[in-house]
Design a protein that fits this description.
This protein is mainly alpha-helical. The protein is 46% helix and 0% strand. The longest helix is centred in the middle third of the chain and has 10 residues. The protein is globular and about 20 Å long. The N and C termini lie far apart (21 Å).
């Protein structure tokens, strides 16, 4: 899925980061949860 160095190896990790909103940008959030748009 592209060469993003931010991408965590674990999907659960990613979801946790999204929930925490530590480094997640609105664009990444929209890609992870298109239903929110």
């Amino acid at each position: 899925m592209g060469s993003s160095s931010l991408a965590p190896t674990n999907m659960g990790e990613f979801l946790q980061l999204v929930s925490n909103g530590s480094f997640v940008t609105p664009r990444l959030r929209a890609r992870a949860f298109p239903a929110e748009m």
